[in-house]
C-alpha cells in the first residue's frame, strides 16, 4: 500500500456557494478537480491526524467513485477513521446527526441537493463542522484561498472498499466503518416525536402520500413512516433512490413535485402530502387541495411546538433567513421569544443554535429544522406536521385558517428566473440599488417605501459580518420586495424575487397569493426593468 503525493496546480472557480461547491459532473471529473478541493478542505480545518470523518452523499451519479477517492485521501492525510453510510448514502440531516452522535471531527457530504443528477448534470461537495453544521464563511473562504495556492495532494494507492457491506475495514492505517445509513437518524426521530400518537393517526381514517422524488429520503421514509410508524405500504412514492433521480429535478415545490401536487389536488385527494429533495434536507407540506408555504410552515411549527414531546417545554427562540416571510416573527412576539434574521443559507443558523439562542429555524426555500441537528431536515418537518395533526385532529387547511385568524396572514411568493445571462442579472439588481435614495418616501404598489438597502448581517455570537445578502425595498406597512442572485446554480444566473405583504383582515385570507401580490409583482418588474433586461415575461418557477 503506497502513499502518493501528487503534484497539482490551482484550479479556478472552487469557491463554495450558499451550500458547498457545485459544478457539472464533467467539471468534477477533470483531472485533480475533486482532489484539489478535498485536499484544500483537509489543509484548512485544523489538525486532523487521528480524527474521525463522516462521509456520505445523496447517491447521485459519481457518488460512489468520489467516496472511494475521498477515503484514500483521508487515509493518506492521517484520519484514524471514516464513518461512511452503506452504499455511500447519507442524507444531509442524517450526516449531521452522525457527526454529532459519534463526535466526529467533521464530515464531507456529497450532494448538489435538488439540482438534477446524471453524467451531464450536477455534483457537489460540502464540509460540515464537528457541530454537524455547514462550515461557516470564514472556513469556506479559507478552503477557497487554499485552492488558489495548492501544489500537491496526498492519496493512498490501494483497493476500493465494498460500500455495500456493513462492517469495519482497514485502508492503510485508517479504519473504515460502513454503517447503516438510516438507523441513527431514525432513532433520533423516535426520541423527538410522539410515535404512538402518529401511529394512532395512521390507524384512523387518515391518508398520506410522501414523495421521495427518487432521491435519498426513500430509504429513510420507508423505515420510519412505513416501518416504525405503520403507515400503509405504498405511502412512500418514488422511494427507490436512483443515480439520476429518475431524470427529475428533486426540488419539492409546486413546479417540480407536480406528480405529488396532482395527487393532492385530485377529487379523491389524501389528507396530507409531503415531499423531500435530493439530499433530504428540504420539505414541502400539502393538505387536501392546499399548499403550505414554507414560511407559514415554520410559523405553524413555532406556534404548535409544545404539542411535540421534544419541544414540550417551549422553544428558546426562532430564526429565519432574511427573505423568509415575517410570519414566524409574529408567533415569536406572541410567545415572548427572540426572532433572528440571518442571510440565506443554513450555515448562518449554527452559531445561534450552538449558543442555545434558537430552537427552530427556517428558510422560505422549503427548509425547516431545529437544534436536534445542524442542518435543515425534510423528514423531521414531515414528522413534526404529523405529530401536530395527530394531536389537533384538524385538517391542514383548518390549522392554517386558524393560524391566520390568530396572527394575520403574510402573503408570500418567490419568483425565480433561472439561467439568465449573468450581466443582465447583475444589472437587474443594480437598477434597484441605483434607486435606493429616490424610492424612499415614494408610493409603490399602493404602499409607501420606508427604506431600501443591501442586507448585511453581523453574527451576534462571533461578530463576523456578511454583506450584500440581498437588495431590499421595505415598505411602511411591513411589505417587502427583495432581489437576490442564487448561490447554488451551475448554469447561468438565477434571479430570485421575494414578495411579501401582510394582511390582518380575515375576510381576505382566502385570496390566492399571486392575486394578493399582483401590485407588488408589477412594482418589482418596473423598478428593476427585469422584463426588458432578461427578455422574460414570466418566472421559471413560482413558489
Ligand atoms: C438555495 C436556497 C437557500 C438554501 C440553499 C441550499 O440557495 O435559496 O435558502 O439554503 O439553496 O439548500 P440559493 O443561493 O440558490 O438561493 V439545499 O437543499 O440546496 O442544500
Ligand atoms: Co437540499
Blueprint (SSEs and pairs):
Elements: E1 2-7, E2 21-24, H1 25-28, H2 33-44, E3 52-57, H3 63-76, E4 81-89, H4 92-101, E5 106-110, E6 122-128, H5 137-147, E7 152-157, E8 167-171, E9 174-179, H6 183-192, H7 195-203, E10 208-211, H8 217-228, E11 236-237, H9 258-264, E12 272-276, E13 283-287, E14 290-292, H10 294-304, E15 317-321, H11 327-335, E16 338-342, H12 350-354, E17 360-363, E18 367-370, H13 378-392, H14 396-407, E19 409-420, H15 422-433, H16 436-439, E20 443-444, E21 447-454, E22 457-458, E23 465-466, E24 471-475, E25 480-485, E26 493-503, H17 513-516, H18 518-528, H19 530-534, E27 541-542
Parallel strand pairs: 3-4, 3-5, 4-9, 10-11, 10-12, 15-16, 15-17
Antiparallel strand pairs: 1-7, 2-6, 5-6, 8-9, 12-13, 13-14, 17-18, 19-26, 19-27, 20-21, 21-24, 22-23, 24-25, 25-26
Helix pairs in contact: 2-3, 2-5, 7-13, 10-11
